[in-house]
Amino acid sequence: MTQNTCFFIGHKTFSQKKIERITLRLHKEVDKLIQQGVTNFISMGKLGFDQLAASIVISKKQQGANVRLIFALPCRNQDRRWTSSQKQLYQSLQSKADEVFYLSKKCDYYCTIRCTRYIIDNSAYCICASFCSVSEIAEVAHCAQQKGLQVINVAKF
């Protein structure tokens, strides 16, 4: 799965102006990777960028692209503190995924770490949305780059 796989990671909130620019760039970068033979896209299903990226992969599938959306979720109840509308979107995206699996039964401090390690170890590409060099997102992107993954930051314009 590794050579034809990309994972997504990014912040959960953006300004409206940034969302529009990131969405356009994300569409372009996903299209480029599809043209290069990437068929598997992994999302951790988190609020914000992860869900935006998942919805774009779903739209590419609906347009006939030969792609798979995989949800590698940190734990079964990661949505426990989300609003009902956030939970509905999360469940809708999962229902359209090709594969959904959980790396932990319950949420704890380490479940996201295990999930992040899994997606890095099983991907060749990372599309991130990172606005600053000191953040959890930037740290994951840096770790992916150190492991030899091609990292594409769609938040850099």
Please describe the topology of this protein.
Layout: E1 5-10, H1 16-35, E2 40-43, H2 49-62, E3 68-73, H3 84-95, E4 99-102, H4 111-121, E5 125-129, H5 136-146, E6 150-153
Parallel strand pairs: 1-2, 1-5, 2-3, 3-4, 5-6
Helix pairs in contact: 1-2
Structural description of this entry:
Helix 5 (136-146) links the parallel strand 5 and strand 6 (150-153). The radius of gyration is 14 Å and the shape is globular. It has five helices and six strands; from the N terminus they run E-H-E-H-E-H-E-H-E-H-E. Helix 1 crosses helix 2 (49-62). The model has no long low-confidence stretch (mean pLDDT 95). It is of the alpha/beta class and 157 residues long. It has a six-stranded parallel β-sheet, sandwiched between helices. The protein has a single domain, classed as 3-Layer(aba) Sandwich (Rossmann fold), CATH 3.40.50.
CATH architecture: 3-Layer(aba) Sandwich
Structural class: alpha/beta
Q: How much of the polypeptide forms β-strand, as a percent range?
A: 15-25%
CATH class annotation: Alpha Beta
The backbone outline, from C-alpha atoms, is globular
How many β-strand runs? 6
List keywords for this structure.
157 residues, Rossmann fold, six-stranded parallel beta sheet, 6 strands
Would you kindly provide a brief summary of this structure?
The chain is of the alpha/beta class. The chain has helices at 16-35, 49-62, 84-95, 111-121, 136-146, and strands at residues 5-10, 40-43, 68-73, 99-102, 125-129, 150-153.
